[in-house]
Structure formats: C-alpha cells, structure tokens
Amino acid sequence: MSRILGIDPGSRVTGFGIVESAGRGFRYVTSGVIRTASATFPERLRIIFEDLTALIHEHQPEALSVEQVHVRHNVSSALKLGQARGAAICAGAVLGLPVHEYTPAEAKQALVGQGSADKQQVQMMVRLLLELPTAPPEDAADALAMALCHLHQSPFSRRVAQATAKQWK
C-alpha cells in the first residue's frame, strides 16, 4: 500500500490531499487547505512549510506529488507560486520524501481522460474515485488529483523502468 501527499501550491491557499492505494482502488485519508492570506509573504512561506511538515509527521506519506508551475499571464504571480511550491517541496525533502512533479494536464489526463478537463470535472472524478459523499473544494480536489495522478502513474513507471532495465542487460 502506498500513501501519497498531493499538493496544489498557492501563496494564499495551498491545497493538500492524502490518498492510499487500496488493492486496485484508492482510499481517501484526508484533505484540506492551508490559508495564509493575511500574513506577509515570508510568513506565508513559513506557514506552508510548517503546516505541511506537521501533516507529514501526522500522516506519514511515502511520497509527495506536487503540481508544476505554469505561467499564464502574470509573471509576478508565477514567481510567488513557484516560491510557495518551493516551500512545499522543502517540507517533503527535509523529511526525506521523494518528490514527484506533474503538470495540471497530466493530472487531468490521469483522472478524467483529457488534459483539458475543467475544475468541476476534476472535482467530480476525485469524488467518484475516492467514494466521497460530496466533491471537495477546488484546491483540495486539485491536491487529491495530484496524489491520484502519482498513484496512477507509479505502476506504469515501474513497468517501463523494469522493461528498460531488461532491454539493456
């Protein structure tokens, strides 16, 4: 069984979600958001780091799956997002967790079957896959999608690595 912490980084709201593989399915552990909006920017980064560190200690995930930064229009926002992402990655790395990175399109493709899926489709698939009574909030759903994406990709990645290793022997 694998337990993965998914992160949807943001400088004001960082989503998190923890999912376990359970046989051929998945099991929901927890999810939520870290809100930092009223703090100064350096304080926001500290809050993200400390809250995720506490979450990792409490739930003992085996790996961290984090959304890659994508620049749309505002470079300043992308830089702040990158710094929030860095605080999240450091929380996992300091505690020895392997960090895996996926684009939003990769997570959407893994869950919905198309990389251009909208937020509501992601929320609905997260709810269905984890058998939740209601769809989680957007940021938590995106974080759960990151964790599910990694659990979906891991078996495939292991098979590719094994096949490649055999080919080169």
UniProtKB/TrEMBL annotation:
**Which reaction equation describes what this protein catalyses?**
Endonucleolytic cleavage at a junction such as a reciprocal single-stranded crossover between two homologous DNA duplexes (Holliday junction)
- Cross-referenced InterPro entries, in alphabetical order? RNaseH-like_sf, RNaseH_sf, X-over_junc_endoDNase_Mg_BS, X-over_junc_endoDNase_RuvC
Q: Which Gene3D superfamilies match?
A: Ribonuclease H-like superfamily/Ribonuclease H (3.30.420.10)
Textual note on the cofactor? Binds 2 Mg(2+) ion per subunit.
UniProt: Mg(2+) 1 binding residues: D8, D139
Q: Where in the cell is it found?
A: Cytoplasm
Report the family membership.
Belongs to the RuvC family.
Task: Identify the Pfam families for this entry.
Answer: RuvC (PF02075)
Tell me the protein's name: Crossover junction endodeoxyribonuclease RuvC
Annotated residues for binding of Mg(2+) 2? E67
The alphabetical list of record keywords is: Cytoplasm, DNA damage, DNA recombination, DNA repair, DNA-binding, Endonuclease, Hydrolase, Magnesium, Metal-binding, Nuclease
GO BP, sorted A to Z: DNA recombination; DNA repair
Q: Which organism does this record belong to? A: Natronocella acetinitrilica
GO CC annotation terms, alphabetical: cytoplasm; Holliday junction resolvase complex
